[in-house]
Amino acid sequence: MTAVQDHATTGHTISANGASPAEKAKDRRVLAILIGLAMLGLLAITAYLTYGVQGSWSYALSLRSRQVGSLIVVGIAIGASSLVFQTIAGSRILTPGVMGFDAVYVLIQTMIVGLFGASTLQLLGVMERFALNTFALMIFGLLLFRFLFRSNSRNLFVVVLVGIVLGSLFASLSTLTSRLLSPDDFLTLQTVLFASFTTVDPVLLGVTGAATAFGLLALWPQLRKLDVVDLGHDGCVALGVDYHRTVRTTLVIVTLLVAASTALVGPMIFLGLIVANLARQALPTHRHTSLVVASALIGLLFTVGGQFLVTHVFDLQTPISVVINLVGGLYFIVLLLRTDRL
Amino acid sequence: MIFLHAVSHAYGATTVLDGVDLSIPRGKLTALVGPNGAGKSTLLSAMARLLKPDTGQVMVGDLDVLSAKPAQLAKKLGVLKQLNQLSARLTVIDLVRFGRFPHCQGRLQAEDHRIVEQAMDYVDLQEFRDRFLDQLSGGQRQRALIAMVLAQDTEYILLDEPLNNLDMRHGVAMMQLLRQAADDLGRTIVVVLHDINFASAWADYLVGMRDGSVVAQGTPEQIVQREPLREIFGLDMQVVDVAGRKIGMYWHPELVGAEELSPVAVYG
Ligand SMILES: Nc1ncnc2c1ncn2[C@@H]1O[C@H](COP(=O)(O)OP(=O)(O)OP(=O)(O)O)[C@@H](O)[C@H]1O
Ligand SMILES: [Mg+2]
Question: What is the ipTM of this complex?
Answer without folding.
Answer: 0.87
